[in-house]
């Protein structure tokens, strides 16, 4: 039996199935999405081995200039590319620092995650730095409560402060803005991708 013949579910690593069963890689996102820096796929991982998708604080103002579908396509493209390179299919984990986020940004990120899950399970865990505004926290929790039409199967980890992230993600995998020491330059990453 070849190494790709049997699909194995490993919940601790988020691995679902071998690469032979992966969907084709979606097209490269457009330049305005790639260059926005509103969502990042920097090639780092959480402690479950899931690649991280990061919604950085300094990109939140740019996020609302994109559509949810564009962000989903961005995540799907780089997730599929990474799965092909690793010869296994894993789920992604998401990090969002919502401490100072507006209600519209929080709604956008939450609805994007639900849209990402609409057709197939993609997200393993969502690590959220808790919003400081009570109305934004309520909105976030309300949007993620499973409804009859769409249930989210990912784990929600609500954190009070950034240092708590290191309980789930090694600091070598986090940029300085999230309490780590992983050096990341979005402009260089875009040049490399192109």
TrEMBL record:
Cleaved signal peptide residues: none
Gene3D superfamilies: CRAL-TRIO lipid binding domain
Bilayer-crossing regions: none
Domain CRAL-TRIO, first and last residues per copy: 29-186
Region of interest called Disordered, as start-end residue ranges on this chain: 1-21
Short name of any one Pfam family annotated for the protein: CRAL_TRIO_2
Domain of life assignment: Eukaryota
InterPro entries in the record: CRAL-TRIO_dom, CRAL-TRIO_dom_sf, Rho_GEF_signaling-related
Entry-linked PANTHER family: PURATROPHIN-1-LIKE, ISOFORM A (PTHR45845:SF3), RHO GUANINE NUCLEOTIDE EXCHANGE FACTOR-RELATED (PTHR45845)
Name this protein carries in UniProt: CRAL-TRIO domain-containing protein
